[in-house]
Amino acid sequence: MTDPTTLTFWIAVVQIIAIDILLGGDNAVVIALACRKLPETQRRKGIFWGVAGAIGLRVVMIFFALQLLEVPWLKIVGALLLVWIGIKLLQPEEEGHGEVAAATTLAGAIKTIIVADAVMSLDNVIAVAAAAHGSLLLVIFGILVSIPIVVWGSQLVLRLMDRYPVVITGGGALLGWIGGGMIVSDPALPKDLFAGLPYPKYLLATFGAIVVVVIGKWLAARALAARPKAAPVDLLAESKED
Length: 242
Prior knowledge:
globular; mainly alpha
C-alpha cells in the first residue's frame, strides 16, 4: 500500500484527495471569515499560518485514528460513521458559517482557523484514515496534494457541486464504498466469515455505496418537500399601493 509504483497506492491517493475536496470545501470559507477583519498586509500571513496549523493538527488526529482502526469492532463503527457521513453529504445544504467569528489580530485569526478546522474535520479525519488503509505516508501525501485544491480551488469545486449534483452523489457513494469495504478487515470478525462470498470486499463496498445513495436521496427528497414554500407575490396588490 505504501509503494508509489503500485496502482493501489494511487487509487488510495485519489480517494483521499476526493474526500478532502468534498468534506473540506467549507474550509476556505472559514478561513475567509476568520481573516476578513485583518489588515490587508496580515491576511496572507493569517491564511498561511492558520492553514499550516490546521493541517498539522489534522495529521495528528488522523494518526490516532489510524491506530484506533486496528482495535476490534472499531472498523465496523467507522464504516457506519462513513455511511452516515455520506448520507449527510447528500442532504440539502444549510448555512452555518455565520457562527465563525472574525478576528481582529493575526494570532486570533490563526487560532480561529485551527479551532474551527478541528471541530469541522471529524468526518474528514475518519474518512481519510479509512481510505489510507493504515498508511500515514498516504495520509500526509494525500493531504499535501489536496492543500492547494482545498484552499484556492474550493470555491470552484463548490460551484461545480452546485451545477452538477452528480459530483456530490459520487462523493457520497465513495464514502459508502470505503465504509463497506472496511468491514471485511475488522479484526473482531472471524476470518472465514465471508469465505462463501466471491470478492467480499467489493460486494460490501458496492452495498455501502448503494445504501448511501438510496437513503441519502430519499432523505434529501423528504427534507426538500418539508421546507416551507415562499408565499406568492401579489403584483396587483403591490401596484395598487404604489
